[in-house]
């Protein structure tokens, strides 16, 4: 759209509002949000529809603060049905299948070590937005530590609560009181209050979910990628020219294992990583049962696999002696299993600590023996986020106290397991 056309549309709007001025504030309609509209005052209010703002006829509109692109492209004009959607609708209203359907991530660029890359690997250039609560984001946090990228990629965590406007940044006061490193206001944009502001800065008409993780380029002021599997993959290799040994030779996706890694990801993503969400967000008995049974069959398969590895004693990881992406991606779900998924998502056919000895051992080894795993796990955020944000599942927002402890020490078992072991 040309600048001239835009200006003309702004002028028409201004004229219209000038005529409405004497009347009390009324809602006027919704328009697509733009980066500029963040700076608008009371004429604009947020809506619960991602990508759109509410216009009112409140006092004096100047040309300066109607710096809104009034472009309502085909893509941005939303149906009445779309407008009713809420961030907290995990299953779309009217979807009788009762199935949670995860959206496809939108930003899919890559940081690259290649010369002339659009997003070159550079120290200090990228920021990683995460939530400690989120298993997908924690994949990236773990990789950042394992690959020695702590001085190369900065990071911060959002507040644990996900509200009607999505993830928000902690205030300065909260940052002091919060439990957890880097739980701070947005370090890249001090005036941003919500993660969605970062999305709108990159793409004014963005109309999908505002998810973590987000890998952000501080120079181009743009989201590079918001898909955790890809952020994990690029952290594994693309910054290797900037890190010293021993980090350079940490290979999370080794050539010789690629086929097996890809195959494991395929079923584990669908049945386990996403399977807990499909169980927990289901709104029909059929959808819940289908997904929870498939989840536990997949966990049984993990148990068999890890039991064999432990018996042959070729190493503590999924592929024996080599820590790979598979360990990271499975860990972030399994570590949340007993504290949250068992009760909150009704994934309670068994729990890990009493029902899956080999998975339990594998998980505890990663947590207690490899600092990147423990340091990226914040049980406080994990427990509070799910139980107090998903009000349709847990209307009173009460966080269960147990199980205690969040994770057992290595070598200690729940009493029933220990009793059997003594026999
Ligand atoms: N495919 C994405 C999924 C990320 C995702 O769903 N993150 C959740 C947190 S666990 C989120 O930010 N949800 C906010 C929302 O959907 O509004 C990825 O793997 O990066």
TrEMBL record:
GO terms for molecular function: glutathione dehydrogenase (ascorbate) activity; glutathione transferase activity. It comes from the Eukaryota. Residues 73-92 are annotated as: Disordered. Gene3D superfamilies: 1.20.1050.10, Glutaredoxin. It is found in: Cytoplasm. Keywords: Cell wall biogenesis/degradation, Cytoplasm, Oxidoreductase, Transferase. GO terms for cellular component: cytoplasm. Its EC number is 1.8.5.1, 2.5.1.18. SUPFAM superfamilies: GST C-terminal domain-like (SSF47616), Thioredoxin-like (SSF52833). It catalyses: RX + glutathione = an S-substituted glutathione + a halide anion + H(+); L-dehydroascorbate + 2 glutathione = glutathione disulfide + L-ascorbate. Pfam families: GST_C_2 (PF13410), GST_N_2 (PF13409). Residues 254-386 form the GST C-terminal domain. InterPro entries: Glutathione-S-Trfase_C-like (IPR010987), Glutathione-S-Trfase_C_sf (IPR036282), Glutathione_S-Trfase (IPR040079), Glutathione_S-Trfase_N (IPR004045), GST_Omega-like_C (IPR047047), GST_Omega/GSH (IPR016639), Thioredoxin-like_sf (IPR036249). GO terms for biological process: cell wall organization. Its main location: cytoplasm. Residues 75-88 have a biased composition (Basic and acidic residues). PANTHER family: GLUTATHIONE S-TRANSFERASE OMEGA-LIKE 1-RELATED, GLUTATHIONYL-HYDROQUINONE REDUCTASE. Active as '1-Cys' thiol transferase against beta-hydroxyethyl disulfide (HED), as dehydroascorbate reductase and as dimethylarsinic acid reductase, while not active against the standard GST substrate 1-chloro-2,4-dinitrobenzene (CDNB). May be involved in cell wall organization and biogenesis. Belongs to the GST superfamily. Omega family. This is Glutathione S-transferase omega-like 2. It comes from Diplogelasinospora grovesii.
